[in-house]
Write a structure and sequence with these properties.
By secondary structure, the chain is mainly β. It is 0% helix and 63% strand. The strands form two sheets. Strands 1, 3, 4, 5 and 7 form a five-stranded antiparallel β-sheet that branches. A three-stranded antiparallel β-sheet has the order 6-2-8, with no helix packed on it. The protein starts with a strand and ends with a strand.
């Protein structure tokens, strides 16, 4: 629930990976400048498989961004600057 800001003066590519936190659907929902964009989604049968999801998100110059996770936890976040 933390909002971050791209203050680099260049676009950032954000790579995020998540793992399942239970059974059912999981999503990583990016919000850029207050607008939800292209959620990353996946589903799994149970938590024993440790299913993962992930993707890349382009963060424009001077943009604010927030990631909302549902039924998963973050395993890694990387920024390409």
């Amino acid at each position: 629930a933390t909002t971050y800001y791209n203050t680099t003066g260049k676009p950032i590519v954000l790579n995020i990976q998540g793992v399942s936190a239970g059974s059912g659907n999981m999503t990583i929902e990016p919000t850029i400048n207050g607008t939800v964009v292209n959620a990353i989604a996946g589903s799994f049968a149970n938590s024993s498989g440790n299913t993962s999801i992930g993707g890349n998100i382009l963060i424009p110059v001077s943009a604010s961004y927030l990631l909302t996770l549902s039924n998963c936890t973050v395993s890694s976040v990387r920024e390409l600057r």
